[in-house]
Amino acid sequence: MQITIVPDAHAVAECAADRIADAIRSSAARGRPAALGVATGSSPLGTYAALAARVRAGELDVSGVAAFALDEYVGLDPHHPESYHSVIRRTVTEPLGLDPERVHVPDGAAADLEAACADYERMIEEAGGVDLQLLGIGANGHIGFNEPTSSFASRTRVKTLAPQTRADNARFFGAPDQVPVHCVTQGLGTILDARQLLLVAQGEGKADAVARMVEGPLAGVCPASALQLHRRADVVIDRAAASQLRLSDYYEYVQEHLPGGAA
Q1: Active-site residue, 208 included
Q2: Is the model's pTM score more than 0.90?
Q3: How many CB atoms lie within 10 A of CB 153?
Protein backbone atom coordinates (compact mmCIF):
# COMPACT_ATOMS: atom_id res chain seq x y z
CA MET A 1 0.00 0.00 0.00
CA GLN A 2 1.01 3.59 -0.56
CA ILE A 3 0.36 5.47 2.67
CA THR A 4 -0.12 9.23 2.43
CA ILE A 5 -0.28 11.09 5.74
CA VAL A 6 -1.60 14.65 5.60
CA PRO A 7 -2.24 17.21 8.35
CA ASP A 8 -6.04 17.18 8.63
CA ALA A 9 -9.39 16.10 7.21
CA HIS A 10 -9.45 18.96 4.68
CA ALA A 11 -6.11 17.81 3.26
CA VAL A 12 -7.41 14.22 3.08
CA ALA A 13 -10.36 15.39 0.99
CA GLU A 14 -8.23 17.48 -1.37
CA CYS A 15 -5.64 14.75 -1.87
CA ALA A 16 -8.27 12.06 -2.48
CA ALA A 17 -10.19 14.31 -4.89
CA ASP A 18 -6.98 14.85 -6.86
CA ARG A 19 -6.46 11.07 -7.12
CA ILE A 20 -10.02 10.49 -8.31
CA ALA A 21 -9.83 13.35 -10.82
CA ASP A 22 -6.62 11.86 -12.21
CA ALA A 23 -8.34 8.48 -12.61
CA ILE A 24 -11.28 10.08 -14.44
CA ARG A 25 -8.96 11.98 -16.80
CA SER A 26 -6.78 8.93 -17.39
CA SER A 27 -9.77 6.80 -18.34
CA ALA A 28 -11.09 9.52 -20.66
CA ALA A 29 -7.67 9.71 -22.33
CA ARG A 30 -7.98 6.00 -23.09
CA GLY A 31 -11.31 6.66 -24.78
CA ARG A 32 -13.58 5.25 -22.07
CA PRO A 33 -15.52 7.13 -19.37
CA ALA A 34 -14.45 6.04 -15.90
CA ALA A 35 -16.41 3.71 -13.67
CA LEU A 36 -16.04 4.79 -10.05
CA GLY A 37 -16.83 2.82 -6.93
CA VAL A 38 -18.43 5.12 -4.37
CA ALA A 39 -18.74 4.70 -0.62
CA THR A 40 -21.15 6.10 1.94
CA GLY A 41 -20.50 7.09 5.56
CA SER A 42 -18.85 10.24 6.86
CA SER A 43 -15.27 9.55 5.69
CA PRO A 44 -15.73 10.30 1.95
CA LEU A 45 -18.04 13.32 2.29
CA GLY A 46 -15.21 15.86 2.13
CA THR A 47 -13.80 14.10 -0.92
CA TYR A 48 -17.13 14.36 -2.75
CA ALA A 49 -17.39 18.05 -1.86
CA ALA A 50 -13.86 18.67 -3.17
CA LEU A 51 -14.67 16.81 -6.40
CA ALA A 52 -17.89 18.77 -6.84
CA ALA A 53 -15.93 22.01 -6.50
CA ARG A 54 -13.62 20.90 -9.32
CA VAL A 55 -16.62 20.09 -11.53
CA ARG A 56 -18.26 23.47 -10.84
CA ALA A 57 -14.99 25.24 -11.64
CA GLY A 58 -14.83 23.49 -15.01
CA GLU A 59 -11.64 21.64 -14.01
CA LEU A 60 -13.15 18.16 -14.31
CA ASP A 61 -15.45 16.62 -16.92
CA VAL A 62 -17.58 13.83 -15.47
CA SER A 63 -19.88 13.37 -18.46
CA GLY A 64 -20.33 9.67 -19.07
CA VAL A 65 -18.81 8.66 -15.73
CA ALA A 66 -20.54 5.67 -14.13
CA ALA A 67 -20.70 4.98 -10.40
CA PHE A 68 -21.30 1.82 -8.39
CA ALA A 69 -22.14 2.04 -4.70
CA LEU A 70 -20.65 -0.47 -2.31
CA ASP A 71 -23.73 -1.42 -0.36
CA GLU A 72 -27.34 -0.89 0.69
CA TYR A 73 -29.54 -1.78 3.63
CA VAL A 74 -31.98 -4.67 3.23
CA GLY A 75 -35.65 -3.83 3.62
CA LEU A 76 -35.26 -0.05 3.59
CA ASP A 77 -37.38 1.76 1.02
CA PRO A 78 -35.06 3.32 -1.60
CA HIS A 79 -36.78 6.66 -0.93
CA HIS A 80 -36.01 6.54 2.79
CA PRO A 81 -33.63 9.45 3.52
CA GLU A 82 -31.01 7.09 4.96
CA SER A 83 -31.20 4.46 2.25
CA TYR A 84 -27.97 4.47 0.30
CA HIS A 85 -29.96 5.17 -2.86
CA SER A 86 -30.90 8.49 -1.23
CA VAL A 87 -27.48 9.13 0.34
CA ILE A 88 -25.62 8.55 -2.94
CA ARG A 89 -28.08 10.80 -4.76
CA ARG A 90 -27.55 13.62 -2.23
CA THR A 91 -23.78 13.32 -1.80
CA VAL A 92 -22.56 12.06 -5.19
CA THR A 93 -25.02 12.10 -8.09
CA GLU A 94 -26.45 15.60 -7.67
CA PRO A 95 -23.33 17.50 -6.47
CA LEU A 96 -21.17 16.03 -9.24
CA GLY A 97 -23.88 16.26 -11.89
CA LEU A 98 -23.67 12.59 -12.80
CA ASP A 99 -26.27 10.99 -15.03
CA PRO A 100 -28.62 9.19 -12.58
CA GLU A 101 -29.05 6.38 -15.11
CA ARG A 102 -25.33 5.63 -14.76
CA VAL A 103 -25.30 5.58 -10.95
CA HIS A 104 -25.99 2.14 -9.53
CA VAL A 105 -26.79 1.02 -5.98
CA PRO A 106 -27.43 -2.59 -4.85
CA ASP A 107 -31.12 -3.45 -4.58
CA GLY A 108 -31.82 -4.14 -0.92
CA ALA A 109 -35.58 -4.13 -1.51
CA ALA A 110 -35.60 -6.92 -4.12
CA ALA A 111 -37.95 -9.86 -3.66
CA ASP A 112 -35.09 -12.16 -4.70
CA LEU A 113 -31.97 -10.79 -3.02
CA GLU A 114 -29.70 -13.53 -4.31
CA ALA A 115 -30.67 -12.73 -7.90
CA ALA A 116 -30.24 -8.99 -7.23
CA CYS A 117 -26.71 -9.65 -5.97
CA ALA A 118 -25.85 -11.63 -9.09
CA ASP A 119 -27.34 -8.86 -11.27
CA TYR A 120 -25.15 -6.27 -9.53
CA GLU A 121 -22.01 -8.28 -10.17
CA ARG A 122 -23.05 -8.58 -13.81
CA MET A 123 -23.60 -4.82 -14.14
CA ILE A 124 -20.09 -4.11 -12.86
CA GLU A 125 -18.64 -6.64 -15.28
CA GLU A 126 -20.62 -5.24 -18.23
CA ALA A 127 -19.32 -1.75 -17.40
CA GLY A 128 -15.77 -3.04 -17.83
CA GLY A 129 -15.04 -3.16 -14.12
CA VAL A 130 -14.39 -0.41 -11.61
CA ASP A 131 -11.46 1.89 -12.39
CA LEU A 132 -11.14 3.37 -8.90
CA GLN A 133 -12.94 2.24 -5.77
CA LEU A 134 -13.23 4.81 -2.98
CA LEU A 135 -13.40 3.30 0.51
CA GLY A 136 -13.84 4.32 4.10
CA ILE A 137 -13.06 2.05 7.04
CA GLY A 138 -15.24 1.12 9.99
CA ALA A 139 -13.96 1.14 13.57
CA ASN A 140 -14.01 -2.67 13.47
CA GLY A 141 -12.05 -2.76 10.21
CA HIS A 142 -14.96 -3.29 7.83
CA ILE A 143 -14.94 -1.95 4.27
CA GLY A 144 -18.22 -1.76 2.45
CA PHE A 145 -20.38 -3.78 4.83
CA ASN A 146 -17.90 -6.65 4.91
CA GLU A 147 -17.86 -7.31 8.64
CA PRO A 148 -15.04 -9.17 10.47
CA THR A 149 -14.43 -12.75 9.23
CA SER A 150 -15.69 -11.92 5.73
CA SER A 151 -14.05 -14.05 3.05
CA PHE A 152 -11.40 -12.35 0.93
CA ALA A 153 -12.98 -14.16 -2.06
CA SER A 154 -16.54 -13.00 -1.32
CA ARG A 155 -18.78 -11.44 -3.95
CA THR A 156 -21.87 -9.23 -3.66
CA ARG A 157 -24.13 -10.85 -1.09
CA VAL A 158 -26.42 -10.37 1.92
CA LYS A 159 -24.65 -9.83 5.25
CA THR A 160 -25.69 -9.38 8.87
CA LEU A 161 -24.44 -6.09 10.29
CA ALA A 162 -22.33 -6.21 13.44
CA PRO A 163 -23.83 -4.61 16.55
CA GLN A 164 -20.98 -2.07 16.58
CA THR A 165 -21.74 -1.08 12.98
CA ARG A 166 -25.42 -0.61 13.78
CA ALA A 167 -24.53 1.45 16.85
CA ASP A 168 -22.09 3.58 14.83
CA ASN A 169 -24.75 4.20 12.15
CA ALA A 170 -27.50 4.99 14.64
CA ARG A 171 -26.50 8.67 14.47
CA PHE A 172 -28.04 8.76 10.99
CA PHE A 173 -31.30 7.14 12.10
CA GLY A 174 -31.95 8.52 15.58
CA ALA A 175 -31.87 5.20 17.44
CA PRO A 176 -29.96 1.89 17.11
CA ASP A 177 -33.14 -0.17 16.72
CA GLN A 178 -34.00 1.81 13.57
CA VAL A 179 -30.86 0.64 11.78
CA PRO A 180 -31.57 -2.41 9.58
CA VAL A 181 -29.97 -5.68 10.67
CA HIS A 182 -29.08 -6.85 7.16
CA CYS A 183 -27.45 -5.33 4.09
CA VAL A 184 -26.38 -6.12 0.55
CA THR A 185 -22.69 -5.43 0.03
CA GLN A 186 -20.04 -5.89 -2.59
CA GLY A 187 -17.73 -8.64 -1.36
CA LEU A 188 -14.05 -8.26 -0.64
CA GLY A 189 -13.32 -10.19 -3.83
CA THR A 190 -15.48 -7.75 -5.79
CA ILE A 191 -13.68 -4.78 -4.23
CA LEU A 192 -10.27 -6.27 -4.95
CA ASP A 193 -11.19 -6.54 -8.65
CA ALA A 194 -11.11 -2.74 -8.97
CA ARG A 195 -8.06 -1.45 -10.83
CA GLN A 196 -7.24 1.03 -8.06
CA LEU A 197 -8.33 1.28 -4.42
CA LEU A 198 -8.37 4.56 -2.52
CA LEU A 199 -9.17 4.48 1.19
CA VAL A 200 -9.66 7.65 3.23
CA ALA A 201 -9.81 7.97 7.01
CA GLN A 202 -9.78 10.83 9.48
CA GLY A 203 -9.64 11.10 13.25
CA GLU A 204 -8.35 9.13 16.22
CA GLY A 205 -11.45 6.97 16.20
CA LYS A 206 -10.15 5.24 13.08
CA ALA A 207 -6.51 4.96 14.24
CA ASP A 208 -6.74 1.41 15.59
CA ALA A 209 -8.51 0.09 12.47
CA VAL A 210 -6.01 1.86 10.20
CA ALA A 211 -3.06 0.35 12.09
CA ARG A 212 -4.53 -3.14 11.88
CA MET A 213 -5.26 -2.68 8.16
CA VAL A 214 -1.78 -1.45 7.26
CA GLU A 215 0.55 -3.13 9.75
CA GLY A 216 -1.44 -6.01 11.17
CA PRO A 217 -1.61 -9.51 9.74
CA LEU A 218 -3.68 -10.34 6.69
CA ALA A 219 -6.74 -11.61 8.53
CA GLY A 220 -10.47 -11.88 8.04
CA VAL A 221 -11.00 -10.36 11.48
CA CYS A 222 -9.86 -7.06 9.89
CA PRO A 223 -11.52 -7.10 6.45
CA ALA A 224 -9.67 -3.93 5.37
CA SER A 225 -6.38 -5.85 5.60
CA ALA A 226 -7.43 -7.27 2.22
CA LEU A 227 -5.93 -4.08 0.76
CA GLN A 228 -2.53 -5.67 1.43
CA LEU A 229 -3.33 -8.03 -1.47
CA HIS A 230 -3.99 -5.29 -4.03
CA ARG A 231 -1.31 -4.14 -6.44
CA ARG A 232 -2.48 -0.50 -6.30
CA ALA A 233 -4.02 0.45 -2.98
CA ASP A 234 -3.67 4.05 -1.80
CA VAL A 235 -4.44 5.04 1.79
CA VAL A 236 -4.87 8.75 2.50
CA ILE A 237 -5.19 9.59 6.20
CA ASP A 238 -4.75 12.53 8.54
CA ARG A 239 -2.25 12.56 11.40
CA ALA A 240 -4.89 11.58 13.94
CA ALA A 241 -5.87 8.46 11.97
CA ALA A 242 -2.14 7.67 11.55
CA SER A 243 -1.40 8.02 15.27
CA GLN A 244 -1.11 4.29 15.97
CA LEU A 245 1.07 3.41 12.97
CA ARG A 246 4.47 2.15 14.12
CA LEU A 247 6.14 3.06 10.83
CA SER A 248 4.60 6.46 10.23
CA ASP A 249 8.04 8.09 9.97
CA TYR A 250 8.92 5.67 7.19
CA TYR A 251 5.68 6.35 5.31
CA GLU A 252 6.34 10.08 5.43
CA TYR A 253 9.90 9.49 4.26
CA VAL A 254 8.55 7.48 1.32
CA GLN A 255 6.17 10.34 0.46
CA GLU A 256 9.18 12.63 0.11
CA HIS A 257 11.19 10.13 -1.94
CA LEU A 258 8.74 8.53 -4.36
CA PRO A 259 10.41 6.97 -7.42
CA GLY A 260 10.52 9.37 -10.33
CA GLY A 261 9.30 12.25 -8.20
CA ALA A 262 5.70 11.02 -8.41
CA ALA A 263 3.19 12.87 -6.26
Answers
A1: no
A2: yes
A3: 11
